[in-house]
Amino acid sequence: MNLQISHLRNLYLTGVLTATDLVKKLDDKIGFENSRNIWIRRLTLDEMLSYAKNLEGKNIADLPLYGVPFAIKDNIDLAGIPTTAGCPEYAYTPSKSATVVQKLIDAGAIPIGKTNLDQFATGLVGTRSPYGACQNSFNPEYISGGSSAGSAVSVALGLASFSLGTDTAGSGRVPASFNNLVGHKPSCGLLSTHGVVPACRTLDCVSIFALTAEDASIVLESAQGYDEEDAYSRIAMAEAKIISDKSFNFGVPKLEQLAFFDNVDTPKLFKQAVQQLESLGGKAIEIDFEPFLETARLLYEGPWVAERYAAIRDFFETKSDSIFPVTKQIIGNATKFSAADTYVSQYKLKALQRKAEAVWHSIDILVTPTAGTIYTINEVNADPIRCNSNLGYYTNFMNLLDLSATAVPTGFQNNGMPFGITVCAPAFKDKQLLTLAAKIQKLSTKTLGATGFPFIK
Fold first, then answer.
1. 147 preceded by cis ω (within 30°)?
2. Digit-coded pLDDT (tens) for 392-401
3. Are 410 and 419 contacting, i.e. CB atoms less than 8 angstroms apart?
4. Which one of 26, 312, 325, 359 has the fewest beta carbons within 10 angstroms of its own beta carbon?
């Protein structure tokens, strides 16, 4: 079944489909077979039906997400369902849902399950989980991307209309690129993180995976909003127009600053994407990407890794043997940083923020590959740290520089694996980025995720 939101909404409004019918069909389709390691906890048919029955008698026109099924990364709370963060020994059962989840349910959406992730949201690969490595929706030999692994694959395979992930270093964009999806990383604080297991609390975002940019925009509208219970929530600023309908300037890194990690296909695909943006009225301007790269290196080479330790400190100190080996190694590095190191890095970040801000005087948006290449699961297992680091080349700086970003699919490599670009801008330019992403999709996208359903322009 085509789960694109506009398509489902039309079926509901015309009476061809009911939410109860949809839930039953999805339950049959998903079954309890989990060969790609997508799910940590699927909702039962009765659990899904309880949400569907709550919609009975309600006006479809009043609920923008009426009967729309969605998946939830398992570091985000759903009332009555265990939250594991990818670690069984860490699990707890929340009495209420995360603020963002409740907003979506209130808008009519139906949760269908909790998805697999790199443990404690630490990784961009989707392999660092005791629940098994999540497999790519196009080829199970390849990684799904992470840490929001199952969230992306569930949507790409047509098991959910959209899903929630989190994005601290790229976890809401890399899996989107690897599965032919749109992945939106909102401005920090736009979506509440109350009820989310933190990775780096000062940087964490709840992200959205969707089949189309238009779907992601609909979800964002329902999910956003200031939350008194989240100390990092921010009131959204009015969006000053940065992208003209006829012309705009977009920055691209200098040729020598682009990295594709020996992939022979992706440089050509990125060049084609730049040409597509030019056909939409954009003017490409080379920028110095070094301040962004320096900022990216701070995230894992600097004391911000100590935030990951702080988030699970008591658990790490008492039950470290239950933590996935690579995850334990990364978080364990936090103890080498002192308070003085943290201040020194904060000073460096402030200087880099000032350098990066100068870029926006000459460009409206910045465009990069979402990832320079993709790896097989075996390649990642053989060299987990290097592969993960390469995947963060274009993503790790975003939240440190307070940017909003949208990953959008733009083509396929010769091996059949998807490729995409990311468009980003300063905070609170989310709607404009999604509008531009929708235009890019109309030029480049032919099918929805890995479903085979055509993208209807």
1. yes
2. 999 999 999 9
3. yes
4. 325
246-284 core/surface letters (b: 16 or more CB in 10 A; e: else): eebebbbbeeebbbbeebebbeebbeebbebbeebebee
pLDDT at 155: 98
Q: Where are the domains of the chain?
A: 5-223, 248-429
pLDDT at 456: 84
pLDDT at position 278 is 97
Q: Could you give the percent of the chain with pLDDT greater than 90?
A: 92
Q: Which residues of the chain have pLDDT under 70?
A: 244-245
Tens of pLDDT, residue by residue over 198-254, are: 999 999 999 999 999 999 999 999 999 999 999 999 998 877 777 766 789 999 999
Closest listed residue to residue 208, CA positions, set 268, 169, 246, 167: 167
Q: What angle do CA 279, 284, 285 make, to 5 degrees?
A: 170
Whole-angstrom distance, CA of residue 141 vs CA of residue 268: 24
**What is the per-residue burial (b if ≥16 Cβ within 10 Å, else e) of 401-414?**
bbbbbbbbbbbbbe
Domain 5-223 has CATH 1.25.40.10: no
Tell me which H or E stretch contains 12: helix 5-13
Q: What token pair was written down for 261?
A: 């990690």
- pLDDT score recorded for residue 335: 84
**Of these residues, 97, 147, 222, 444, which one is catalytic?**
147
Residue 304 makes CB contacts below 8 A (sequence gap 6+) with 200, 203, 298, 345, 400
Indicate which residue of 163, 171, 207, 404 is catalytic: 171
Is-catalytic flag, 73?
yes
Nearest 5°: the CA angle 395, 312, 121 is 30
> Is 147 noted as a catalytic residue in this protein?
yes
Q: Active site includes 171?
A: yes
Q: Quote the tokens at residue 1.
A: 């079944």
Q: Of 73, 114, 185, 429, which residue is the catalytic one?
A: 73
Token pair for residue 414? 């010769």
Both tokens assigned to 43: 């909702």
Pull the structure tokens for residue 157.
């395979």
Domain spanning 248-429: CATH 3.90.1300.10: yes
Total residues belonging to the chain: 457
